[in-house]
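Minutes, project check-in

Agenda point 3 was the complex the collaborators sent over. CS summarized: two entities, 519 residues total, and the question is how they sit relative to each other. Sequences were read into the notes so everyone works from the same version.
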Amino acid sequence: MSSDDIRTGLAAILEEVAGVLPADVTPDKSFTDDLDVDSLSMVEIALAAEEKFGVKIPDDELANLKTVGDAVSYIEKAQAVA
Amino acid sequence: MTVGFDGTTTGAGRRPDVVVTGMGATTPLGGDVASTWTGLLEGRSGVTKLDAEWAAELPARLAARLAVEPTHVLDRVEARRLDRGEQVALVAARQAWADAGFRHPRLDGPGGPGGPGGPGGDTVDPERLAVVIGTGISGALTMLGQQDVLRERGHRRVSPLTVPMLMPNGPAATVGLDLGAKAAVRATVSACASGADAIALGLDMIRAGSADVVVVGGAEACIHPLPIAAFGQMRALSTRNDEPQSASRPFDKQRDGFVLAEGAGVLVLERAQDAAARGARPYAVLAGAGITADGYHITAPDPEGTGAARAIIAAIRDAGLSIQDVVHVNAHATSTAVGDLAEAKAIRAALGEHPVVTAPKSMLGHLIGAAGAVETIATILAVRDDVIPATRNLDDPDQGIEMDVVRMTPRHVTVPAAVNDAFGFGGHNVALAVRKL
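CS then shared the predicted structure for the full assembly.
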């Protein structure tokens, strides 16, 4: 899966869970500061991403995923390992 | 100068009059106060059959569902973070807030309700704004739904929103957050008296000076196989499954239990002086509250209605009213065999036989924690408009009722003051007294 596909998939999750407009989901955006995603929604997004992309996102990794770009590259690497 | 509870103008230290300046509701009869009130005056039933597969084996296969789905009113993302009980509380609270003429901190533009260029809109200092919303078992749907997730998919799939959705203070907290209330956010939990209990607590808070505006009410949404099975095991529910619109029949000889309903009612309380100063037009005075406990049984009412009668008398005293002023009683009457009889005894013991009584659960079903709030709204409109809705399905009044219960068509009569009863499992009795401005 290309990083663009992952970003598009992530945007769909963000729209469903937090009402974020897909166009706003760009790599530089911070989940909390720019997209107004709270800590509870972040857990929901991680759960949905695990299902959608077939990866595991442990809590200590989740804490490091500050931006959309962080999440996309983590998922890309995790998929490559799987 | 303060207007005292006895209607006289007195110096400082006397209690202020507390008025209701806004009301909102979403019920089985309609998605707002106006449609609910019209439904009550028309004698419509909000009860329908439960056709879902999950209901097939249940003894009671009927319920009073919301007329308007809250998810059709609320923003999608907002709604998905809320339990259904929180959703209905939010819907009713926003209506009440706008009805009172206040500006929503987020949804309304600077022009007030309706956005920029709207009809104005007052603001409240957030540290002087409180919310009190009660519930019976709001959150049950989330608890039960997430139990299914846990069992079928494991703990990693349980929603991180589960706790804020299942907590019984959730409806109060949801509304408090939405309106920006920072004086206090409180939740009363006294089963089917919770909504009325919340109104009584709000009245206390204004009288005590701990807030200038209190948004009060009740919310409930628990139509699900477990609560229906559980109430059914208590033999508390009507099983008149083939005639849903005739199932809820308070005071009737053939009554066989209540019908579970869902919805919310919310009111805005403030001092009469403050309402007048900002040019608000109150509906009525919330004149007094009486709260007692039966001390008799965990669920059965005291058959003599002693605790209920004491609550009614306490409310009238608190309101500074005479028994003759109380022309109307909006009864709790749920359509159970023992409850309705005990309440009839209580009303007669406290007030005699003159009050004109109605039983709105004959149309609404039993809104549990929202009942006392929605029915107080109906009581207030009866006092304002001098009309009392008829009790539906009262074909043959039972022995022991012996009261002037309105039947067939609404009664037009001058109502200077009225009492709303609300009782709850646990022996909770709440009576609220309302009078004309």
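Noted in discussion: The longest strand of chain B covers residues 284-293.
Follow-up: revisit at the next meeting once the mutant set is ready.
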